Amino acid sequence: MIEVRNLSFSFDNNKFFDNVSFNLPENKINVIVGPNGAGKTTLLKLLTKAFLPDKGFIGLNNLTTFYLPQRINYISGITLYEYLASIFFRNSWKWFLENSEKEQINNILNCLEIFDKKDILIENLSAGELQKANIGLGLLSGARLFLLDEPTSNMDLINQVKTLNIIKKLTMENVTSLIILHDLNLASCYGDYFIGIDKTRKIFCADKLNFFDEQVLKNIYNMPFKVIKNKEDIHVQILN
Amino acid sequence: MTKSRKIYVILILCIIFFVTFYLALFAGYNDAGTGLFFKTFHLTDDADSIILEVLRFPRVVKAIVAGSCLALAGLIMQAVSKNSLAEPYLTGVSSGAGLGIVLSILYFNGAAYSVFGFAGALVSSLLVISFAGLSRFSIAKLILTGLSVNLFVGSLISLFILTNADKAQSMMFILSGGFSDVISNRNLIILFLAGVIICGLLIPKLNFLRLDSNIISSFKKEKDIYNILMILISAFLTSVSVFAAGILGFIGIIVPQISKMLVGNDYRYLFITNILLGSAFILFADYIARTVVYPLQIPLGLVIAFIGAPVFIFFLTKKGDIFNNDRS
């Protein structure tokens, strides 16, 4: 279980989060939703320890983390294969990759359906392909907790679904993920547990059935919603 | 960029290296040249081999040391700071090493110059980094701080040299760039080999730094120790280059950049290309410096800028689009 207790955080003496507590289940897809500027990315950065809280406790249960930021800078002049290979130079001093590592890279490329692009320079790849490669980095890193900041932005509908399928498959292999998503329908399809943050930075956590409730969504987004539930299937519409 | 192409490029660079090596060693006004190549292997006692042994050979060693050390130091700084403008000269590290050597010559009769030079380089690189903000420095801030430290330390060096006219002769090389006598060839080669071997051990890890810094920081622990090691080795390499040839600008910036255009961004290949290209560059510059207006010698730094600028601009216009995505 991932535990956040009495967390307070401020930017330049302005209170941002005040005494926030929640727990997240492991080996599930946890989804953070909320309007722009509510503090979704800040919450992720607190979990990665890129931001340090004023006070409070964050327990990640010793899970190794992989964080995928919203905006990523790419170096030019390397191929997709080399980009993925970078991760294997993390904690070794060796000059050459082992065969097993090369095989692992090829497997991941196949699994993400970008194997045919492996010798293309990354500056010539599309945004969606790059994002797949980034998720591949997470897979290769062997991390057990994936913190993904809008991983499916820039992707077409099919690739969004495919990428989330891969993340879903990961949860079977004991990987916990915490994802920021904007598309509520997509979130309802893939998420197991939800964190909603509203403009006043109040946090509401619930499982799928309790979270997709017209009143809850109205509180988070300050906008009326219509929620159609058909057992596990949930459809969300904004009433405008 | 395919592997075979990279190996092809490295082979061509090897040829260029040996051509410049040959030029620097055998060509010039003082000896006959070509035929000599074979003679030198059974050294006779004639004037030619003395020129080779006493004049040319030490110069060649110093040129190779200075060229490869500067190129490698620049390569490492650019990788760690993720900024293609970082290099030993612009960031003031070279001047720091220069100041260290000047102080050692003035007050300790040249004793422990290597320690002084290294300490100077280290202090100025740490100064620049801490002024620019340790973890989240911006490109502009790093370069501007480096520039200021460079000017400040550079003027300190000039001050020390001007106020100590009796020893000025042995220190002038530090400022203008030229081959020095402060260090014996044997010690220089030992320091050089130590630096290059350590650098070779560390270099594959730079491949990891190609990833976005936010992604890297989720593996935080490893990165911190590693960055400090990298700063140490680049300061060390810079100080070795200053022992060999004084403060030379430009090499540390153009050689790594041209290498990147040639073989892409795999640091294992960049390590080799930087050594070859950096040495070849200074060897050739030295050849020009010795021969163009013989018997005068043009300062090395001048020749480097004179050849380097057009070559660099040529590469930029040809393949400069490599920088378009290079933000940090």
Describe the structure.
The complex is a heterodimer of chains A (240) and B (328). Chain A is of the alpha/beta class and 240 residues long. Chain A folds into two domains: 2-63 and 144-238, Rossmann fold, CATH 3.40.50.300; 77-142, no CATH class. Chain A has helices at 40-48, 80-85, 99-111, 127-141, 157-172, 184-190, 208-211, 214-221; strands at 2-11, 14-24, 29-33, 55-59, 65-68, 145-149, 176-180, 193-197, 203-207, 225-230, 233-238. In chain A, the strands form three sheets. Chain A has a six-stranded mixed β-sheet, sandwiched between helices. In chain A, strands 2-1-4 form a three-stranded antiparallel β-sheet, with no helix packed on it. In chain A, a hairpin with a 2-residue loop joins strand 10 (225-230) and strand 11. The model of chain A has no long low-confidence stretch (mean pLDDT 87). With 328 residues, chain B is mainly alpha-helical. Chain B has a single domain (3-31, 39-323), classed as Orthogonal Bundle (ABC transporter involved in vitamin B12 uptake, BtuC). Chain B has helices at 3-26, 36-39, 47-81, 93-108, 113-132, 139-162, 165-176, 185-202, 213-216, 220-245, 251-263, 267-291, 300-319. In chain B, helix 5 runs antiparallel to helix 6. The two termini of chain B are 23 Å apart. The A-B interface holds A 48-50, 65-69, 72-79, 82-83, 85-87, 89-95, 119, 121, 123, 134, 137, 141, 143, 147 and B 1-2, 82, 201-202, 204-208, 210-215, 217-220, 222, 260-261, 264-266, 268, 322-328.
